[in-house]
Amino acid sequence: VWRAALSLTGALVSIANKKRTGRMIKSRILPLIRSHCGLERVKSPNVLRYAASSSRQYATSSTSASTSQSSSSVPSTSAGRHSGGRRLPDDGMSLKDFIPTSSLASDVGGVGAEVRPYGSDSDAFDSAAKPPARNVMIETYGCQMNVSDSEIVRAILLKAGYNMVDNEREADVILINTCAIRDNAEQKVWNRLENLKHVRLQATRKMLGRHVAADEVATMKTELPRRSTGLAMVGVLGCMAERLKRRLVESDKLVDVVVGPDAYRDLPRLIAAVGQGEAEAVNTMLSLEETYADINPVRVSDDGVPSAYVSIMRGCNNYCAYCIVPLTRGRERSRDPESITDEAKRLAEQGVKEIVLLGQNVNSYCYRGEGDFTSSKMSGEEQLLSRGFQAKIQPREGGFRFVDLVDSVSAAVPDVRIRYTSPHPKDFPDPLLDLVRERPNVCKSMHMPAQSGSTRMLEAMRRGYTREAYIELAERIRERVPGISISTDMISGFCGETEEDHADTLSLMKHMKYEQAFMFAYSMRERTLAHKKMVDDVPHDVKIRRLNDVISCYHDGLRQRNREEAGRHHLVLIEGRSKRSENEWTGRTDTNRKVVFPKQAVASTLAGDASAKVDLQVGDFVLVQIESDTLTTLRGTALARTTIPEHARFLSVASNSFPSLSL
């Protein structure tokens, strides 16, 4: 009796968020519970509470089967509340009270319980009806943070027993890691989901030999074999999942699993739930602590590219008016520095030559957790932020800060380049600038997202600085770190932007002459401050015109920068073969400029015999002399293979001469 009641309780839980819940409970579920349990007078609001409390009593009792089948076996408590003539315990219920006693419940019931892959031999389904579903394909859209997150997801699923594939036809589960920063990014995902929907429709129609509507496939998808029919399970991960939540599974795109950025550890259980008959599985809970510090990401080699991402913090506290990130990624929390340094060392041992430290606001990193981690370079409240900048959430003194982390990581791996993205201009205090100047393997490039050149627009965007403060910081950076490159982000057409504001942005572009810029037309995002309190009043055609003006102004400044590069020497990390020619290498300078140069034998070192030639390969550092440019790409000639420490020693020579080379 109690097994039947508990099973029906599971049915109640599974439909709790469906439409017409009340009518279904009244017309279908209540009569069944009454007939099984003899609860003729039970009321709808108390059904779930009663069945759950009864199931707990049943699960913990040690009575015999014959006793449990008798009418006197109804459990009771010595004290409690009345509900439909029965007593309920005063201590309330736990999550286990709502999970039916099935194979799924046993898999996920306890802390530390083993979660088996969907489709494994332990599943409570006939293997002939549901073939093993162990192959997962991950597609990644958006920024470097999403690439890093996909590496974390890959590690979690591999540990749970799944296999990774890169072919849609071989996949039992297709996971799409998404971006929500702009509407264009989301449209790419919607288009991909529409494509997968049509694949499902066509596969089902072919199997059944008749026309099948999308809503019919949605009903059938838990009953049909998957790989053999093309009905791969589809999951949406990341920022778009966090922003839209259940709207994704309620759409007509046949999405099965929705998982936010802080719930990736739950993926094996959610996939198993859908694989064992659940219509969908959703977990978009944000966390104040999750950093995935204990997970070793599984990276996929991209033609031997010698670069790797290391996530050091998650979330953002800036709450800029236009930005969805704090709402999809949550509040800032920093990963412990020891795990970051250890990961950097492992990557160096694996042959990685460039590490990119990642975070939504990477230079606001500040670890205050366990361990003896105190800042050796930061002291005094006036040094916590760049001069003239403000923060919406004021930083506290103390803690192991970003400058300390960069110092620690760069010292631990002196032969590896260190980059970081994406920063906020407010978090560039002088000690960080000094470290960038002094440490050879910390790249001499800084990303300073301005977003606008108008102080009025910056105030509306809640950026925390004025045009004048931004320019002063940029000039101080170029003065303290000679030869540094500066890049930026720009938004055209934000709410209320006038032609005068646009002119201020153009004048800032002309003044700065950025080496790199990411420029976009404004796209309003739901739930942001701008969406709640402002009006998107700049027409689309005006946004595009202003954006084109900004791009043109950027190109003009870049051409001037390129002319200054002619004849200079740069340390370049070879990333791979040029896309346009098999006879050329492509790589990046310390200042993050792309360089293309011919494949040819070069001197083996800067200090050695110039006649000793070696062939270059991906992952080598090489000294390159710049000769020309094609706007966004520099062209040059390789002179010698070298290393970061060796190159730094030669740069310290005042004459900057290389006696073994013919320059």
How would you describe this protein?
There is one protein chain. This protein has a 6-stranded parallel sheet with strand order 4-3-5-6-7-8, with helices on both faces. The protein has a 5-stranded mixed beta barrel with strand order 19-20-21-25-24. It starts with a helix and ends in a 12-residue tail after the last helix. It contains 20 helices and 25 strands. The chain is an alpha/beta fold.
In short:
35% of the residues lie in helices and 17% in strands. With 663 residues, it is an alpha/beta fold.
Protein traits:
alpha/beta, 35% helix, 663 residues, 20 helices, five-stranded mixed beta barrel
Topology:
Layout: H1 2-14, H2 21-37, H3 44-60, H4 65-68, E1 81-83, E2 86-88, H5 103-108, E3 135-140, H6 144-159, E4 163-164, E5 173-178, H7 183-208, H8 214-220, E6 233-238, H9 239-244, E7 257-259, H10 267-275, E8 281-283, E9 307-311, E10 313-314, H11 325-329, E11 333-334, H12 337-349, E12 354-358, E13 366-367, E14 400-401, H13 402-412, E15 417-421, H14 430-438, E16 445-447, H15 455-460, H16 467-480, E17 485-492, H17 499-512, E18 516-521, H18 529-533, H19 540-565, E19 569-577, E20 584-589, E21 594-598, E22 602-603, E23 613-614, E24 621-629, E25 634-642, H20 644-651
Parallel strand pairs: 3-4, 3-5, 5-6, 6-7, 7-8, 9-12, 12-15, 16-17, 17-18, 21-25
Antiparallel strand pairs: 1-2, 10-11, 13-14, 19-20, 19-24, 20-21, 22-23, 24-25
Helix pairs in contact: 1-2, 1-3, 12-13, 17-19
